[in-house]
Every structure is written in structure tokens, then in C-alpha cells.
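hey so u asked for the seq, here:
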Amino acid sequence: MTDNITRILLTDDHNLLVDGLKRSLNEADGLKVVGTANSIKECMEFLSGHPVDLLLLDVQLPDGNSIDFVPKILQAHSSLKIVILSSFAEPTVIRRAIDAGISGYLLKNSNSDEITKGVLAVADGEHYISPEANALLKEAPKHVPSLTRREREVLHLVVEGLSTKEIAARLDLSFDTIHDYLRNLRIKLDAKSMADLVCRAKDQCL
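ran it, C-alpha cells below
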């Protein structure tokens, strides 16, 4: 932190969202967005060459699930504060992020004032979980992830043993679309692999 200014790196692959966040955060006293990144790779490259106090990080990025990289980032940059900004309103994802060492968790459906409030709180040394995310954690200790109809269809076909290509053909969708569904399912169910995804689906009777 320099002259009471918290230097922020935004990492998200949605450029319109990044542009809006950059404007709103730069309007707040004590905050300054010093860079943006569209992937985990770009994020880590920026951190290695520039001073950053707070990382605002999306979960789902083109090159992976960012929560998996949080411990590695903190190991390399021990004073860095990480705030997750995600569309995943799932207790399993929120808990996993907290366990990884993040300082804050915000939801993308929050308004700009709520996001700025959370970032300022973390910049001041607090831990901040958005009210909606906090309510989800409290209401369902053993919460079963909420899946869309299509996600359930894809998951059932995975459990049946179909490959990504076969699922795409069965549902008349593109390979890339099914790949995205599977990535979301792994995040929601906190699965490390396809085999793990099948095990978790059976364990939770999804």
C-alpha cells in the first residue's frame, strides 16, 4: 500500500464488467486499479512484475478455476489480499475459497456500492463475505448445489459414462458448450476430476 492507496488488480475475462468495476473502484477514496488481467496466467505475470495490494479475482477463468491457484498466489505474495468476485452463489464454492485463504467473497449480482464496500473493508484489514453469500453459508451447512436443468442432464450423462463428445452429440450441443457445463459442474461440486465429479454426483444423489 502506498500513501494510503490500495492498489488493485482486476482479473476477469468479461471486459464490460472489468470496465465498469474499474470506474466505480477508482471513484472510491483510497482505491486505485493499477491493472487488469483476463486469465490466471496474465494475473500471475502481472503480480510478478508490479506492486499490488489487493487482487479482485473471478473464479471461472479461461485457463482454470482460480481458487485452485489462491494458495500458490499467496505463497508468492504473502501480503496480498484476495477478494473473489463470482457468479457462483454456492456454499461449497464459498467455503472452498475461504479455506484457500481469500479475504473476501462478493457476488457479481451485487451492486457497485456493495462491491466497493467489500473491497474497502478488506483493504482496511477485515474479512468480508457479502450478505447473500454469508446467508447461504449459514442456512445450509450441508447444502446440495443448485443445478440448472441442463446441468443435471449433462451430469446424468457423465454418470452414465458418456464422453464429452458423446454428450454433445446426445444433446445436440457443441463440444465447447458441454466443456463449459462440465467446468461449472466441477466448480459447483468441488470436483478435481471427471471421476471425482461422478463420485460426488452419486454421493449427493444428484
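The first helix runs from residue 15 to 26. The chain is about 50% helix and 15% strand.
lmk if thats what u needed
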